Amino acid sequence: MPHKRNEFLKNIKNLDIAELQKRLQDMEMDLVKLRAESRVGTIKDTAAIRNTRKNIARILTVLSEKRKASNAQKPSQK
């Protein structure tokens, strides 16, 4: 049975840069909501904050890799 993290990585690696940025924006909004719930005391799953932060970092890493790859493919203009 594949691990959830591996499935998440496979899914985000197949997305293009625009979709990754949209997913990043959605995750950041989720994080804000989770933090607000934490402050109020209504959060059920406290690990969700940590998992969301880690997923944001994974998305940022994949975005960085894709940007570097796209810059490497472009011929340098001087």
TrEMBL record:
CDD domains: Ribosomal_L29_HIP (cd00427). Keywords: Coiled coil, Ribonucleoprotein, Ribosomal protein. GO terms for biological process: translation. Residues 10-37 form a coiled coil. GO terms for cellular component: cytosolic large ribosomal subunit. The keyword Cytoplasm does not apply. The keyword Ribosomal protein applies. Pfam families: Ribosomal_L29. GO terms for molecular function: structural constituent of ribosome. InterPro entries: Ribosomal_protein_uL29, Ribosomal_uL29, Ribosomal_uL29_sf. Belongs to the universal ribosomal protein uL29 family. This is Large ribosomal subunit protein uL29. It comes from Candidatus Aramenus sulfurataquae.
